[in-house]
Amino acid sequence: MALRDSIITLWKTLTGPARHFSLGFLTFGGFIAGIMFWGGFNTALELTNTETFCISCHEMRDNVYAELKSTIHYTNRSGVRATCPDCHVPHQWTDKIARKMQASKEVWGKIFGTISTRDKFLEKRLELAGHEWERLKANDSLECRNCHNFEFMDFTAQSKRAADHHARFLANREKTCIDCHKGIAHRLPDMAGIAK
Q1: Which of 170, 162, 167, 163 is nearest to 140 (CA)?
Q2: pTM (2 decimals)?
């Protein structure tokens, strides 16, 4: 009898009014609203994670994207091409969200025209590159490792110098990709007077 009374009480709570709407309706409505929010959030996240979005502002299209077009990451014999998000946004969801939050500073820069001209871009280029190098160094070149896996490298297909460096530095985690491969997809800034 107690179980039956408990079920009846629960049913009345779920279907009875909680001021204006029943608790069941509010729960179901909240669930549907949550799904809609999550779908909209993920859609917006993926739309801002495309090369088309990245080069929609002239600062990126006319500067770093133009440089990318002449590199092996853009055109190569195998036809595999890295896009802006492949190198600048981690693939794992939590890392991606953290990176998107960091990148929100770029909106501020866009609004205030921090690098709105080629001259402004060149003036800030070393600083911008430095931020990206620090980020890649801190995360052990995570974005590079999404495509380039040390465990599957064929050292016999590499030059002797590259094979030696990869075997020595990467295997022992003494260095990470960005330590040696700065300027791999974009031109290096003026490094005069910078300690390497």
Answers
A1: 170
A2: 0.74
| Cα 132 from Cα 74, distance rounded (Å) | 19
Give the model confidence (pLDDT) of 111-160 as tens digits: 899 999 999 999 999 999 999 999 999 999 989 988 888 888 888 898 99
Write the CA distances from 184 to 4, 23, 26, 81, 87, integer angstroms. Answer: 71, 58, 54, 14, 11
* 7 lies in the same domain as 67: no
Q: What is the pLDDT of residues 31-59, one digit of tens each?
A: 999 999 999 999 999 999 999 999 999 99
- Residue 157 identity: A
Structure tokens at 19: 């001021």
Structurally, how many domains does the chain consist of?
Answer: 2
Number of residues assigned to the chain: 196
CA distance 28 to 22: 10
Question: Residues 99, 164: one domain?
Answer: yes
Token readout for 151 is 């465990």
Whether 190 and 95 map to the same domain: the answer is yes
